[in-house]
Amino acid sequence: MTKMIFVNLPVADVAASTAFYKAIGMEQNMMFSNEQAAAMSWSDTINVMLLDHAFYATFIKKRIIDAHTDSGALFALSFGSRDAVDAITQAALAAGGRELHDPEDMGYMYSRAFEDPDGHGWGPFFMDMAAAAEAMTPAEPTAA
């Protein structure tokens, strides 16, 4: 079996959260969706499970945090260009998301951050790997 990741998120309103994730380009997998959960695919191997609080609570014994005031994770998503990073961020904002900080440009990496209506944080980024390798390579010591 191919290795996959399923990020499980507690949400207040499955239908509203499903609409948000569709707006940022994810596809709903109806086989694993119902009134208490929606399976959203970002790729063939990366999925986000939107679970209403009652259903999410059946998997844990801890308190569900309020992601608007507490942070438990920030999910980073790689994209092939700066324009794609801007596009998903703009889609998130138009669908009711909130931008978490101004765009960050390190030359070799460009990133933005937004949260969904439930406060879960996402960090889309583009990285030029060749430029990153050059920037991260220590300089040769100079001869004295």
From TrEMBL:
One of its GO terms (molecular function) is lyase activity. InterPro entries: Glyas_Bleomycin-R_OHBP_Dase, Glyas_Fos-R_dOase_dom, VOC_core. It holds the Pfam family Glyoxalase. Keywords: Lyase. SUPFAM superfamilies: Glyoxalase/Bleomycin resistance protein/Dihydroxybiphenyl dioxygenase. Residues 3-127 form the VOC domain. Coiled coil: none annotated. PANTHER family: BLR2408 PROTEIN, BLR2520 PROTEIN. This is Lactoylglutathione lyase. It comes from Sphingomonas mollis.
